[in-house]
Inverse folding.
C-alpha cells in the first residue's frame, strides 16, 4: 500500500498523540478521540470577513467537495458535499486575500458543533462545521502581475551589464 504525504502526516500525529499517554493508563475509563479534517475542494462563495470584539478576523466561506463513485450500472457519478468553513486570525485574512468563488483550496482543521436555542420557535438548533487551522495553495494560480504564466518571475533575455556572466556560466546549485 502506497502511503500519501497526508496519510503519513496523519499517522505520525496519531502516534505522537498516543505516545504522550501514561504507561499505566489502560484506557478502560476514557476513550481516545481524534478530531482532524483534511479537505480539498472549490469555494462555493466568496469569503466573508468580519472582525470580533478583540480585532481577530473571522473568515467564513463554503467549500464543495466531490465523492466520485460508480453506480450499479457502472457509470461514474459525482456526489457533491457542501461544507461551511470558518477560519480565524491572520491565516484567515491571508486565505481570503487569495481565494474567491470557484478557486480550489486545500484545508486542514477540525469539526466544531455550535448549539443554540432558536428565539422564534424555542427549539434547540445545532450546526456542524469545519474550523480550518491551515491551508495550502492548489491548482494553477494563473498569471499575476510581474509573473509569467508558469508562476516564475520573468527575467530579461539579455543582461543589461555586458560584464555580467552569461546565464550558462552562473552556478545554479540551489545550496
Amino acid at each position: 500500500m502506497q502511503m500519501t504525504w497526508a496519510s503519513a502526516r496523519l499517522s505520525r500525529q496519531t502516534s505522537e498523540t498516543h505516545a504522550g499517554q501514561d504507561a499505566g493508563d489502560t484506557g478502560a475509563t476514557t476513550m481516545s478521540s481524534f478530531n482532524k479534517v483534511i479537505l480539498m475542494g472549490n469555494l462555493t462563495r466568496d469569503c466573508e470577513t468580519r472582525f470580533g470584539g478583540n480585532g481577530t478576523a473571522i473568515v467564513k466561506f463554503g467549500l464543495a467537495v466531490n465523492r466520485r463513485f460508480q453506480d450499479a450500472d457502472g457509470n461514474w457519478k459525482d456526489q457533491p458535499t457542501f461544507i461551511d468553513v470558518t477560519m480565524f486570525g491572520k491565516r484567515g485574512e491571508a486565505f481570503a486575500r487569495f481565494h474567491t468563488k470557484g478557486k480550489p483550496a486545500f484545508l486542514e482543521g477540525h469539526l466544531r458543533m455550535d448549539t443554540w436555542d432558536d428565539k422564534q420557535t424555542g427549539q434547540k438548533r445545532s450546526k456542524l462545521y469545519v474550523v480550518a487551522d491551515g491551508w495550502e495553495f492548489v491548482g494553477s494560480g494563473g498569471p499575476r502581475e510581474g509573473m509569467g504564466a508558469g508562476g516564475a518571475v520573468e527575467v530579461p533575455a539579455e543582461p543589461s551589464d555586458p560584464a555580467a556572466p552569461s546565464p550558462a556560466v552562473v552556478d545554479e546549485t540551489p545550496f
Residues 14-23, 143-171 have pLDDT under 50 and may be disordered. The helical segments are 5-19, 89-98.
